[in-house]
Specification:
296 residues; mainly alpha; 17 helices; 70% helix
């Protein structure tokens, strides 16, 4: 409490480091009742004076919308100022935004620029992001070897995103010798950190018996965990299980509800299934549908 009072007195005199530290106190409840709006106000004051860490905080608050309504365009402005000051996390965040079109138009060249700047500072988000660009040939010439190289750098920092994508490389033999066992190991490490794509992929692996012994209990468990992390794709798989009675009792009502939830979670392909089931349901072609479902 004394530290907070000291920070406040100095912050009110315009000292930028005190403003930033007071923001941290309010954000985390250090010596004061947690108040994220107050935290954001102190970060804003520090950011106006060009504080690198405060600029990053403001960009993150506006990007993620955990304090106020998201404003991705304004978040870009804060990220850019911090990135130009050399902040690796802001550089990586800009890479994410340009890769995914968040607050800006998709621009893989800009994504590569900012990911690389972050990656060269040892930032795991930048390293893994650069790996993805090399894997798919977005903004750079496709190069699986370079993709693996960057993924490995991020995996060395225990970054879940990179663990998952390096697993995909081992699964498909991209830039490495194909090794399904190694792929599963990496998926599991990523899933332990609740990375949704890893959780969903493991669910599918257990459903197909792909690299693991088939186990529908584990399938459902992993898919539910993925749904809990916001994966609409995982919800879509669960809906399909209810529709076709795979590992669970066939239940068209639950299937329809689950497909609609997948749509609400942003998984567009489920919309066609919602239309289909809302119309007239036809149960024909069971095995061919299941085969298509898991032929990905």
């Amino acid at each position: 409490a004394k530290a907070v009072q000291m920070f406040r007195e100095v912050a009110e005199q315009g000292y930028v480091s005190a403003q930033y530290n007071l923001g941290l106190c309010y954000e985390n409840g250090y010596g004061v009742e947690m108040d994220k709006e107050q935290a954001m106000e102190w970060y804003r004051l520090a950011a106006e004076q060009g504080d690198e860490k405060a600029l990053l905080k403001m960009g993150s608050c506006l990007d993620l919308g955990d304090v106020v309504e998201p404003d991705h365009e304004q978040s870009i402005e804060y990220y850019l100022k911090a990135a130009e000051l050399g902040n690796a996390y802001a550089q990586a965040a800009l890479g994410v935004c340009y890769e995914n079109g968040r607050g800006v138009k998709v621009d893989y060249l800009q994504a590569e620029k900012w990911y690389r700047k972050a990656a060269e500072q040892g930032n795991e988000v930048g390293q893994s992001g650069l790996g993805v660009l090399y894997k798919y040939g977005h903004g750079v010439e496709q190069d699986y070897d370079k993709a693996v190289e960057w993924f490995r750098k991020a995996v060395a920092q225990d970054y879940a995103h990179a663990q998952y994508y390096l697993g995909v490389c081992y699964k498909n033999g991209h830039g490495v010798e194909q090794d399904e066992k190694k792929a599963i190991e990496l998926y599991l490490k990523s899933a332990e950190q609740s990375y949704p794509q890893a959780l969903c992929t493991l669910g599918v692996c257990y459903a197909k018996g792909d690299g693991v012994e088939q186990d529908f209990d584990k399938t459902v468990s992993y898919l539910l965990k993925a749904v809990g992390q916001g994966s609409g794709e995982a919800m879509n798989y669960l809906a399909a299980f209810y529709e076709y009675g795979v590992g669970v009792k066939k239940d068209i009502k639950k299937a329809l509800e689950s497909y609609q939830m997948a749509v609400d979670m942003g998984y567009g392909p489920a919309a066609e299934k919602v239309k289909e089931l809302e119309g007239a349901y036809s149960g024909g072609g069971f095995f061919s549908k299941i085969k298509r479902l898991f032929s990905r």
